[in-house]
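Quick one, tokens below. Sequence please?
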């Protein structure tokens, strides 16, 4: 089975945060997961990033990928979630999600920077709803791993809580890990946000690691 992972760094849809790119790819590769960074279009209204991510997933499928994992942070978490929850067709299917402090809702606790870019000149209630991940969860959503910190002042923890609640009600297997401290943009986390250990265990249980074991 061929497994591929795409890492989508955050940056308010305006840039790509370096610490959420190469270091995360290196961590995944150390686990035995073939991973690459995908620098989706920034500074452009929806659906620019969404279309580009979907096209890249289709390329991986066409090249023989059996399963595709998206790993996204902040705005990149929103981009990953949107790609997973609104695939254009089966060639753009996502099989798993890892989302760190993701932007989820454009309706509740909205992240102004991401919203401004995504909505462009079409800031309407209908468009905000259409781009809010918690409204898009169905029984077809992939198994997911979410983490967030309670002291996140940029993207409030309510974003992950909204998505987790929607997944719970749709019967989607997922984990939500919450940490008291860590702020926003912690990347690989460190001592305050040890999400990588929990995520490695989740990846093993979900069959993303070739031998099913968790490296020490």
């Amino acid at each position: 089975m061929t497994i591929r992972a795409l890492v989508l760094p955050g940056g308010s849809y305006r840039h790509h945060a370096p610490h959420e790119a190469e270091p995360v790819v290196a961590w995944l590769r150390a686990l035995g997961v073939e991973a690459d960074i995908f620098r989706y279009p920034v500074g452009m209204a929806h659906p620019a990033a969404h279309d580009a991510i979907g096209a890249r997933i289709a390329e991986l499928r066409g090249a023989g990928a059996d399963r595709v994992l998206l790993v996204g942070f902040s705005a990149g978490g929103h981009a990953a979630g949107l790609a997973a929850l609104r695939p254009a067709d089966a060639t753009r299917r996502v099989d798993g999600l890892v989302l760190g402090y993701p932007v989820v809702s454009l309706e509740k606790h909205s992240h102004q920077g991401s919203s401004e870019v995504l909505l462009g000149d079409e800031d309407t209630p209908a468009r905000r709803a259409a781009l809010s991940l918690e409204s898009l969860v169905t029984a077809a959503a992939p198994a997911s791993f979410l983490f967030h910190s309670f002291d996140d002042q940029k993207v409030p923890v309510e974003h992950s809580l909204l998505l987790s609640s929607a997944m719970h009600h749709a019967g989607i297997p997922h984990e939500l890990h919450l940490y008291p401290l860590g702020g926003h943009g912690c990347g690989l986390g460190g001592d305050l946000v040890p999400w990588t250990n929990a995520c490695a265990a989740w990846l093993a249980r979900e069959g993303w690691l070739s031998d099913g074991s968790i490296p020490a």
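Strands lie at 3-8, 35-37, 67-73, 96-100, 143-149, 174-179. The longest helix spans residues 48-62.
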